Amino acid sequence: MGCDVPVPARTASTTYPRGRTRTPSTNAADARALTQVLFEQIRTLEPGTPEHTRVRAALIEVNLPLVRYAAARFRSRNEPMEDVVQVGTIGLINAIDRFDPDRGVQFPTFAMPTVVGEIKRYFRDNVRTVHVPRRLHELWVQVSGAIEDLTVLHGRSPTTAEIAERLKLSEEEVLACLEAGRAYHATSLEAAQEGDGAPGLLDRLGYEDPALSGVEHRDLVRHLLVQLPERERRILLLRYFGNLTQSQISAELGVSQMHVSRLLSRSFARLRSANQLEA
Fold this sequence. Notes:
Elements: E1 14-15, E2 21-22, H1 28-42, H2 50-62, H3 64-72, H4 81-98, H5 107-126, H6 134-154, H7 160-167, H8 171-181, H9 213-225, H10 230-241, H11 246-253, H12 257-278
Antiparallel strand pairs: 1-2
């Protein structure tokens, strides 16, 4: 990576201000306590002084496990973990410089969003959208340089054969490198595609069915309805699926409208109770 972070070198036992030492076996509680002590010291020191620099470096080292913990969440991205840790350390340094102990927030709680945010920004801005083999990645650097040189030399974009001859590669290797180079750039969903009138990627995506949100509700209602007695279930179906009024239901079933109303109220109470138990 191009940005090196000044992280103190690890030793078997690192000496900290006021005679404190920390060994590799320091646990999280010890690290939090030491971090608090170091912040109390650094706030009394003038930035830029050797003592301030030393305490700041100690703060970075004692909190490096926090960076490694955050970086481990991105292990599946197939990027060198050293690079991810280094980027996360930049976020850690930014958090150290901005942290105010008087706010009553633990430093790990304050720092973690900054560390993770820095790592995510790195993947968003610098990492290839598709992972390519290391050999193609290295060849792409050469191909890219050859394209620039040949463009200046001929005053036009070079052909695949010209690039291959320049680098002593086969045309197939050059084409593979050019394809790998496209992995560095993501296309916007709203970008227009090549060709007149061709829709953008966003226009070719599926849309969300407005009735989809009701699927789960209908399944829940069906599950609850089967728990009701047959007559109460029939009344609910007539009322809310058949759109009949209570008077029409009373005529259909040969019972009073008042009785229909009582059965509906009782059914609702049972359904609410069953729903709470399901939840």
